[in-house]
Design brief:
The chain is mostly beta strands. The chain has 1 helix and 15 strands, in the order βββββββββαββββββ.
């Protein structure tokens, strides 16, 4: 949800408000370059405990935005991860009260269980944001360096180079990285899956421990700041058991775990 009308590749409707903001983007933090990008090990080369994604399960989070000193709860987010026969399925669903009307979006990506979680197929469906209750569906099928995207009987090919990691995949991968201050990894490209748009790659940097308030109680977590180009666009807090506890997009759009 990077803006109020959030086109999904301009192929679907203007309706896809997706995983991130409902309001115009605010200021974002500069990227913390603790080491030159080239010095950080590539994400694809790390030894990650990928088998843990089989038990990742379901995470329910509350979606809020903070702007101009005010804080508003917009709805809920559910992230689900499952693994079967070497194939991982990531499903992200958003249910919001949007302009006084219910809005939902569900994005499901399936692909091989590896360090980048690059999908073979992605399906997005939901309601449009014009309040008339209409729905849409978009299907993207991925090859080694591109994706074929189909929506509303229209199709388009999008270049998705090797090494592209989606924002949805990053939410799972940060839970597998070592929870130790100073840990740093890099990825070559960022795939904004909600728009099927490839952006500059960046780094994932760990700091902490850091306390996060969940349901009125402080939880010890480790913070992972993720950059694209020269800015932090995502911060994620992971507890000692590898559970995603909090997500912050662009410094003001927050998802907080329920319990």
């Amino acid at each position: 949800m990077k803006r109020i009308t959030h086109p999904f590749l301009a192929l679907a409707t203007t309706a896809v408000v997706a995983w991130m903001p409902l309001v115009p983007a605010g200021p974002v933090a500069p990227a913390p370059q603790e080491a030159p990008l080239g010095d950080a090990p590539p994400l694809a080369a790390l030894e990650l405990p990928l088998e843990k994604l089989g038990a990742w399960g379901r995470r329910e989070l509350t979606y809020t935005v903070t702007k101009g000193g005010s804080r508003q709860t917009l709805g809920a987010v559910v992230l689900t991860t499952s693994v079967a026969d070497g194939v991982v399925t990531l499903t992200d669903r958003v249910d919001l009260d949007f302009r006084g009307a219910p809005f939902w979006l569900e994005v499901t990506a399936t692909g091989p269980l590896d360090n980048e979680l690059r999908p073979d197929k992605l399906i997005a469906k939901g309601t449009t944001d014009d309040g008339d209750g209409k729905t849409f569906e978009l299907v993207a099928e991925f090859g080694p360096s591109s994706a074929s995207v189909n929506s509303n009987s229209r199709s388009k090919s999008v270049q998705v180079p090797p090494g592209a990691v989606s924002d949805a995949a990053l939410l799972r991968l940060v839970t597998l990285l070592p929870r130790r201050a100073g840990v740093l990894a890099r990825f070559e490209h960022l795939l904004d899956a909600s728009e099927m748009l490839v952006k500059p790659g960046g780094t994932i940097a760990c700091s902490g421990p850091e306390g996060v308030e969940i349901d009125g109680k402080s939880r010890e977590t480790w913070r992972f700041d993720v950059t694209s180009g020269d800015r932090v666009f995502l911060s994620a807090w992971v507890d000692g058991e590898g559970r995603l506890m909090k997500v912050l997009w662009d410094g003001y759009k927050e998802w907080t775990a329920k319990g």
